[in-house]
User: Which sequence fits this backbone?
């Protein structure tokens, strides 16, 4: 078995030694820590409505828990969550008061899922953050000798009917005292001032963060964003705004489009005229060639700190292009529901990234996953879930969590494969998120959502006596921001009256309007997703697609049109049959308020 019991180290400093020792303790004793965590969660929540309903009777042991508490999805918990959102303050899921809702990028009925959290959870999450640099310091020396250029943003927040805040987890974290009053740490010095990170306007925030990154370019030792898509958006932003940015640097006067008073005040301290730097930026940016732009402008960058596992793997070639192949460090695996763990070898290749779950974060169980034989869950015959310490190398599992905030045996929807062990703790490769067809940034669109969009758009074709015969989709990330492409084969009954270009453009918008709120927010507020595109293909194209699949061994009886494609020969076939191209003419509707 692939067990790594070599202690992590030697630490770069005393603080790091404590963090590394903590990781050793968690991974050596993962089973006993898990037992303790479960007992703690169950005893403090013994009187909650949820645990009483399943007659746990105050038991805190694994056997009682596993035999009585069902494995659930968000839909099962929705009625409880809705009551909390509506103001019921009784202990429904958690004995500790729910302090806010974290809005997941996973959706339910088109809206972000609401994940209840409790105040003390920030300490647990902060603890996980505090482990990242000590591990990184084992692999990259001297990170205390410079700064990190990180593009970090807050997003819109909403209030539930009872006044509880609902916002993405990182927005909650950046606005918390934990972040704002963090003690000075030489390993965690950022170029972005907090005022810029906390500025709600995404243009002003990005502009200021980029400007500071340019001003301090020689001090930058690492660059990052949460996801790869975010870092590429920053590069695109530089492509669009370098003239104004260099003008600001030349004159020492901040672009008047940045109006946020606290940002302006802070920038007055930072921005000083520097014509040499301005000339340098013009020289690097004015050409067509943006190959290695990151290392040209920020020559001391040692690595890019971005998640490129899962759906983000599609951005690796573009990141390599802009950075000349700098190492891509995937440091952490986390979600709104719970933070899970970290990568103990952050400088490994993206294809080799494995995350080690920290046993103190929650209680983790695993549903064996075999795509050929999916487990049917029913309350009458509970499935056999496996504990963290009992997983098998090479097997795939779906992650099921029980959290301090009151989620019990909740299916996160992530499929993980065990790649080895560090001490007795398994390490996981992130395989995929279940049911995600298309993703550009934080958006996750499933097949049913896309189908609904196609149906809505098809309504617009009725007056032209036209139907969509077949369709498939593609997440096009060649240009940043990426966008969804839908390939349509149409049956036009009256060739004298085909759907007009304008109507087909409107069809793009109709699809977008039907997609979930994370997608629409990406389109409207974050500009992280470009307008949806429909490519109408020649009649007979989807039959050719089938012929191609069959020629490669697909069974004629079982062939189904793939609803999402990315395989190059298929893309070539589809693109060579395109007869017209249409884009969404406007942004879809989106507002921070929830529909349900
Ligand atoms: P959210 O609910 O919006 O916080 O998103 C959490 C989800 O993002 C996780 O359940 C994963 O599907 C995905 N995710 C988080 N971290 C990673 C990672 N390091 N690699 C791949 N996917 C990740």
Assistant:
């Amino acid at each position: 078995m692939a067990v790594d019991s070599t202690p992590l180290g030697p630490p770069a400093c005393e603080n790091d030694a404590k963090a590394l020792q903590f990781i050793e303790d968690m991974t050596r004793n993962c089973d006993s820590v898990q037992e303790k965590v479960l007992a703690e969660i169950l005893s403090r929540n013994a009187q909650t409505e949820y645990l009483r309903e399943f007659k746990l009777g105050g038991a805190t042991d694994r056997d009682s828990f596993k035999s009585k508490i069902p494995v659930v999805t968000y839909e099962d918990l929705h009625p409880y969550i809705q009551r909390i959102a509506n103001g019921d303050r009784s202990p429904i899921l958690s004995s500790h008061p729910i302090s806010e809702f974290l809005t997941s990028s996973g959706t339910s009925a088109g809206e972000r899922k609401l994940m209840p959290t409790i105040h003390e959870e920030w300490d647990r999450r902060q603890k996980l953050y505090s482990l990242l640099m000590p591990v990184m310091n084992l692999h990259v020396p001297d990170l205390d000798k410079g700064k990190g250029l990180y593009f970090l943003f807050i997003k819109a927040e909403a209030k539930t009917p009872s006044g509880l805040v609902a916002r993405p987890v990182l927005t909650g974290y950046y606005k918390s005292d934990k972040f704002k009053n963090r003690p000075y740490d030489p390993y965690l010095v950022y170029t972005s001032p907090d005022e810029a990170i906390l500025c709600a306007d995404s243009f002003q925030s990005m502009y200021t963060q980029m400007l500071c990154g340019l001003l301090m370019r020689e001090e930058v030792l690492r660059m990052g964003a949460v996801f790869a898509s975010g870092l590429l958006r920053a590069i695109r932003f530089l492509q669009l705004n370098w003239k104004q940015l260099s003008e600001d640097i030349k004159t020492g006067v901040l672009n008047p489009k940045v109006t946020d008073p606290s940002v302006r005040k802070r920038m007055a301290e930072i921005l000083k005229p520097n014509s040499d730097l301005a000339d340098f930026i013009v020289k690097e940016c004015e050409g067509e060639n943006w190959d290695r732009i990151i290392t040209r402008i920020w020559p001391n960058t040692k690595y890019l700190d971005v998640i490129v596992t899962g759906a983000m793997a599609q951005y690796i070639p573009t990141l390599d292009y802009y950075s000349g192949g700098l190492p891509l460090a995937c440091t952490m695996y986390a979600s709104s529901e719970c933070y899970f763990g970290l990568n103990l070898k952050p400088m490994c290749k993206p294809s080799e990234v494995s995350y080690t779950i920290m046993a103190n974060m929650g209680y983790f169980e695993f549903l064996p996953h075999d795509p050929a034989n999916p487990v049917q869950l029913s309350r009458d015959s509970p499935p056999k879930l496996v504990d963290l310490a009992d997983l098998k190398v090479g097997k795939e599992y779906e992650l099921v969590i029980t959290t301090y905030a009151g989620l019990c045996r909740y299916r996160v929807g992530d499929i993980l494969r065990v790649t080895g062990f560090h001490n007795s703790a398994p390490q996981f490769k992130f395989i995929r998120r279940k049911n995600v067809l298309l993703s550009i940034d934080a958006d996750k669109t499933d097949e049913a959502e896309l189908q609904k969009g196609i149906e809505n758009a098809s309504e617009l074709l009725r007056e032209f006596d036209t139907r969509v015969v077949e369709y498939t989709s593609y997440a096009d990330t060649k240009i940043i921001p990426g966008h969804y492409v839908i390939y349509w084969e149409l049956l036009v009954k009256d060739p004298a009256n085909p759907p007009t270009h304008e109507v087909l453009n409107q069809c793009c918008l109709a699809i977008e309007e039907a997609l979930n709120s994370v997608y629409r927010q990406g389109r409207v507020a974050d500009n992280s997703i470009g307008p949806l595109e429909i490519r109408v293909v020649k009649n007979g194209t989807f039959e050719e697609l089938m012929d191609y699949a069959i020629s490669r061994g697909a069974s004629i009886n079982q062939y189904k049109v793939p609803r999402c494609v990315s395989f190059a020969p298929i893309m070539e076939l589809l693109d060579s049959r395109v007869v017209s191209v249409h884009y969404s003419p406007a942004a879809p509707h989106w507002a921070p308020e929830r529909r349900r």
